[in-house]
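Limitations
The structure tokens in this dataset are predictions for the assembled complex, not deposited experimental models. Users should treat interface geometry with appropriate caution, especially where small molecules or nucleic acid strands are included. An illustrative entry is reproduced here so readers can see what is and is not provided.
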Amino acid sequence: MRAAVIRFPGSNCDQDCHHVLREFGFATDYLWHKEESAAGYDLIVLPGGFSYGDYLRCGAIARFSPVMKSIIEQANRGVPVLGICNGFQILCESGLLPGALIRNRDMHFICEHVRLRVENTANSFLCGSEVGRVLQVPIAHGEGNYTADGDTLKALNAEGRVLLRYCDAAGRITPEANPNGAMENIAGICNQRRNVFGLMPHPERACDGALLSTDGRVIFESLLVALGESRAA
Amino acid sequence: MKAKVIVMPKHSILDPQGVAVREAMRHHGMPGVKSVRMGKMIEVEVDGADEGKMHEICRDLLSNPVIEDYQLVLEK
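Predicted assembly:
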């Protein structure tokens, strides 16, 4: 399995993603944002960070990086694309995912472990989990407040495209469990084809026993299973 | 050509920055302040660009139509 971790100026979770992907057995390359092609990979990861210093809007300038054109082509061909934190923001800015991430409700940068409820497993990213499972994964962002218009929210819900919501330890979706004001506690969504997944939490920071939680592993384990099946088919 | 682009959060979108500044203004002796909304203004100087192209750039880059509205003011 080959994976690419895209590096923009200002990416800062690229090494964490690279490390975890290699641990899971992916032959992983870094791909500089000026590369013209992201072809030939089984998985493309847009890591967290502050691409272009978050100038203008988070992800707004990264979206026009040369490599993005190729990533959009690969996504449209069905290649799984995983956008974490700033990667999620870039996916929204590029139109691969609907909606936008705006400033957190309370204005603060939040860096803490949160609980996430798995909402849907009919996708390559969470097929190894179960609906209702509660994951503990850290967040670290100032702009993670998911916002979309009513029609978009309706479509996301109707099509089972909200994959993760912020919840409490018992799995309840409550306003208190919502760290950033995201609409309907949305923490992660996928596209209609279900191969592009963006989430604000950092699963790559919850893969090692030394780091408080290993609940992020299920995303990479799911990808390995799903990619193995699609290769065998 | 000189242009000013004013980008504002849509009325339907919560503006956490505006809310925080509104609260600060209330604490600074202006209890009657009802609403504050914050956007940004971008000044552009450009040779030989047409208005249509400027609108395209306002839509695609300078604002995000999901959450923001823009106003383009051209200066002769």
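Some entries come with short summary sentences. For this one: The interface with chain B takes residues 56-57, 60-61, 64, 92-93, 98-100, 102-107, 145, 147-149, 181 of chain A (CB under 8 Å).
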